[in-house]
Structure formats: structure tokens, C-alpha cells
Write a structure and sequence with these properties.
Strand content: 15-25%
Distance between the termini: 18 Å
Order of helices and strands: EEEH
Largest sheet: 3 strands, antiparallel
Number of helices: 1
Length: about 70
């Protein structure tokens, strides 16, 4: 799988980040919350990212940067 970083909250590797793949999917790097109360299948997970990260991705896409 080829992965391309689209937007991040910082330049180091341990920050919330959204990536695009060559499979036409997105990967999301973020914190793994344990207090969400959701029933998640064993083969899936939930990550938490700042709302601002999504806004930054939209802004970059509208400018043609992403």
C-alpha cells in the first residue's frame, strides 16, 4: 500500500494525521480512546483526532494543496 500524508497537526510522527492511500481510502492516525462506550467489532478500532485537522484538510483540498 502506498501512503501519502495529507495533513497533520505537527511535523513529527506522533501527531494526529490523515493519510491517503493508493486504494482510494484514508488512514487516520490519532489517540485510541477507551471511554467512548461504543460496541466496536474486534477487527475495527476508533481513533480520536482534533476537529481542526479535518478543517485543515478541507482547506488544503479547496486550495489544491492536497
Amino acid at each position: 500500500m502506498k501512503v501519502t500524508k495529507l495533513v497533520s497537526t505537527c511535523d513529527i510522527k506522533d501527531c494526529p494525521t490523515i493519510y491517503a492511500t493508493d486504494r482510494d481510502t484514508l488512514l487516520v492516525q490519532g489517540e485510541t480512546p477507551t471511554d467512548h462506550g461504543l460496541e466496536i467489532p474486534a477487527h475495527e478500532t476508533v481513533v480520536e483526532i482534533p476537529t481542526q485537522l479535518v478543517f485543515d484538510l478541507i482547506r488544503k483540498s479547496l486550495r489544491g494543496d492536497a
